[in-house]
Amino acid sequence: MVCLINISIEREFAMASLEDEFGDIIKKARQGQSLTLEDVIDKTGITETTLRALEGCKQPPTSNEVQAIALFLSLDSQTLETIGREQWQPLASPDWVAETVETVRGNIGGYEVKGYLIYDSTTKDAVMIDTAYNPKQMLQRIDVLELRLNGICLTHGHSDHAYGIDTVVAIHPTTVYIGQGDMSMVTEYRSSMDIQPARDGNILKIGSIDLRFMATPGHTPGGVCYSTNPLCFVGDTLFAGSIGRSCPATLYSIHLQSVKERILRMDESVVLLPGHGPATTVGEEKRHNPFVTGQALPS
After folding, report:
1. What is the CATH number of the domain that holds 255?
2. What is the structure's pLDDT at 191?
């Protein structure tokens, strides 16, 4: 049984630890390219003991190790080393974000997850972005803020983001949106609620706010981001300085394409709100994300 622990609410988007460390990043890049530990060892000359320690976040990398691994895995060595030495954090989000977005945090097996309520403060219309594996707290915040729920938008179908939608809909009947490719992940809920595909380009009105659906497959086949223009809820498609794991690994190249051609095509000032870890911006990711920095990006 999974227990919910250390749950809190935040309306301040303060600086927090990155979701991924050096080891997480290189492991995602290696597995995404269907490479074995032996492949990396053979091409870089790094010993198995050292590589396992690096991927397990048990020791910091040397500059030579960063250079060798980054070259082989097509990562940017400079930004990768900066993260490896814990020398970068994204700037805290501007104050206006908290005026229209409520962040709810949940915890699944010690793993923090975030969900959001975006709302029009005048009309009190709202949409939930993922459940944070914490429907009870989501419902509490809806009540405290006196919001009217106009929809639940899932960035993908994994349980840490979708769990509890039935609990919410039972009290606030509304439509649930999810990418077509992830529809099979919420089969258990389909008989008891209205679940619709989140089609690329569709717009959901939240009072005076337009929430645009943006297909971003990669973390999962049906991954979707939700953008208001100054804000974008990116789920596990992107983390500050990293990306989510590609599930399955065969989606890795599509995943990178979604990040480069959809998310990073937006204005550099757009605030990105992920499912795990701190908020970031398009500009920060262009400059600090090892998966994309130093590569030609679509204009």
Report:
1. 3.60.15.10
2. 86
List 222's β-bridge partners, or say none. none
- The pLDDT value recorded for residue 296 is 55
Q: Domain range for residue 43?
A: 22-84
Give the tokens for residue 292. 């994309």
Q: Distance of alpha carbon 253 from its chain centroid, rounded?
A: 17
Separation CA 286–CA 33 (nearest Å): 22
CA–CA separation, 173 vs 274, rounded Å? 26
Residue 107 is inside which H or E element, if any? strand 101-108
pTM metric for this prediction: 0.92
Joined together, the tokens standing for residue 118 give 């975006």
Residue 59's domain is classified under what CATH number?
1.10.260.40
- 10-residue averages of pLDDT along the chain (299 residues): 33 63 98 98 98 97 98 97 95 94 95 97 97 97 98 97 97 98 94 95 98 98 97 98 97 98 97 97 97 73
Backbone angles phi, psi at 200, to 5 degrees: -55, 130
For residue 297, the model assigns a pLDDT of 64
Distance of alpha carbon 255 from the chain centroid: 12
Which residues, in sequence order, are CB contacts of 196 under 8 Å at separation 6+? 175, 176, 177
Q: Which two tokens stand for residue 99?
A: 């005026």
Residue count (the chain): 299
70 lies in the same domain as 151: no
Write the DSSP string, 262-290. Answer: TGGGS-TT-EEEESSS--EEHHHHHHH-T
Structural contact between residues 126 and 208, judged by C-beta atoms closer than 8 angstroms = no
